[in-house]
């Protein structure tokens, strides 16, 4: 086997020409035989399937998982909310399967250092993910890297169709989280991986020591990104559509102290460049005047959008901002369907996701035990 | 254990630099390297004038990692020399793990997150098995019959 496979890790700061040529300025990015097969982290099994096929492939459910067709409870989403729900549900006796479309950990795995998860004064996001996953796997299986194609409810059962199989259950917990919001500009998708990024801690390094970057947004995450990039030595310009920043005072103070340039009352009209980002065009909303800012990178930090597709398919009530409405027991308007974590909006903290995940599982247990008309629970 | 073909001047340093591998990390590495079985050679290739700062870091990092366990040895080669030609190394710095047996290459310095990958690749090259991979990975990978070149773009953060 080793004679068949070669592996090369390319550091993009030291090899920027290669990264630019292959559109690999958002990392990690994987190529097999020159074909892009994955952006971001990827489950091992999917990588193995792609390696065998020679192009992106999710593969099939592997026999060692020993999955069944029917469960008491399905959990969609493997971030802190879903993982905690899985631990609580399994321990209460519910036969549970957790399904994650991408890689486990959600937003948590993109956080380099977590300093507000009690019990761990400082812990790397990925380390905390690994610990939670290991703990969850002691109780019930996890299906990773399975795209969810369809979710429905008929009679008293939920049905979830994925690329790795179809599963049924009497209850469902949605913990599908939220992803970064886009600006929906013409150049945004075209230049993704070519200087447009939504994760400064992932992709900022290549712009250290003099890279010119524009940060779009005026909230906590935009300012955190701007401060991080400034710390790397990038030349940072913040473009914000309002006339003042909407972030914690501590962050605003740092931005001011460091003299980071802020352009208020302005929006991006487009991002342009040949093979990589070369400039952004902005419009001053007070005067209507347009101007260009030459730059090498654009970090878009304009908030999060909930991943509410499955909730919509189930007819679950969606509230302001697209967030799922759940009560204080994490119940939605659809019987035996619960929601937890970032999908429900709020302050978007790991601790909250963990709390809501446990409440959702306990409520599911209570309700499913009470509604247990199909034979005893295990 | 060091073997020097012809030192690249850019990696010379009269003042000993601050260690990259701290005492704490060294302890961790010692423990992890208990798993080593076969000797592993790491080849570091550099060219003066290209990423000089990283040439120094790569040279220092690999020297420090290799000094933790006697099963690891390190060779330094200039780009443009015979060894570089043999392994088709053109970018500075480049690090090859057990090049006589495997095609494992770091193009650039494995700092930050990639430190984990470096350590893992040394261990895997030494035990010539992949016990750390998931059961699912091993099952799938046995089906591979054709040549595959994998390239992953990364940054230290």
Summarize the structure.
With 378 residues, chain A is an alpha/beta fold. Chain A has helices at 16-21, 44-53, 80-92, 125-137, 186-190, 200-203, 220-232, 249-257, 309-313, 350-370, and strands at residues 5-11, 29-32, 35-39, 70-76, 96-100, 142-144, 148-154, 157-162, 165-174, 178-180, 196-197, 212-216, 235-239, 261-263, 266-272, 279-284, 290-294, 297-300, 304-306, 337-339. Chain A is built from ten helices and 20 strands.
What does this structure look like?
Helices cover 26% and strands 26% of the residues of chain A. Chain A has helices at 16-21, 44-53, 80-92, 125-137, 186-190, 200-203, 220-232, 249-257, 309-313, 350-370, and strands spanning 5-11, 29-32, 35-39, 70-76, 96-100, 142-144, 148-154, 157-162, 165-174, 178-180, 196-197, 212-216, 235-239, 261-263, 266-272, 279-284, 290-294, 297-300, 304-306, 337-339. In chain A, helix 3 packs parallel to helix 4 and helix 3 runs parallel beside helix 10 (350-370). By secondary structure, chain A is α/β, with parallel strands linked by helices. In chain A, strands 4, 5, 6, 7, 8, 9 and 20 form a 7-stranded mixed sheet that branches. A 5-stranded parallel sheet of chain A has the order 11-18-12-13-14, with helices on one face. Chain B has 157 residues and is α/β, with parallel strands linked by helices. Chain B has a single domain (2-141), classed as Glutaredoxin. Chain B is globular, with a radius of gyration of 16 Å. Chain B starts with a strand and ends with a strand. The model of chain B has no long low-confidence stretch (mean pLDDT 88). Chain A binds chain B through residues 1-2, 4-15, 18-19, 22, 24, 27-34, 44-45, 47-49, 51-52, 54, 59, 62-65, 112, 201-206, and chain B through 51, 54, 91, 93, 101-111, 114, 117, 121, 128, 133-137, 139-157.
